[in-house]
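Quick note —
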Amino acid sequence: RMETDCNPVEMPNNTGFEEDPDYKDFEGTDVKDMRLEAEAVVNDVLFAVSNMFVSKTLPCAEDVAYINVETRERNKYCLELTEAGLRVVAYDFDQTDDRLQTPYHETVYSLLDSLSPAYREVFGNALLQRLEALKKESQS
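Predicted structure written out below.
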């Protein structure tokens, strides 16, 4: 029987890779590409604003994307989209201002609702029209 003067290294069962977002790609689970998410946000509310598009200048990544929006009041904003939600990061397209400490909103609806009374009106009217259409549908 051979003697060794060192103990074999014990590897923990949980290496931490499972929780590390950098390794999520390997399993293809729960990876949210924020650019795709941002495109979906834009498509959802474009009808209720003057202009809205995903920034081509600011870097999009797995965890962050930037959306430019111009409200019907002609105010321009650059929005940051992350897992935490959406927030205004500048008062112009394709800009970020680190000094701005704006709150996160869980949804684009909530954010636009706080920025634009005209958005609120257009969105509300669209909702009413959809409800009327559903009502007629259910009656026929």
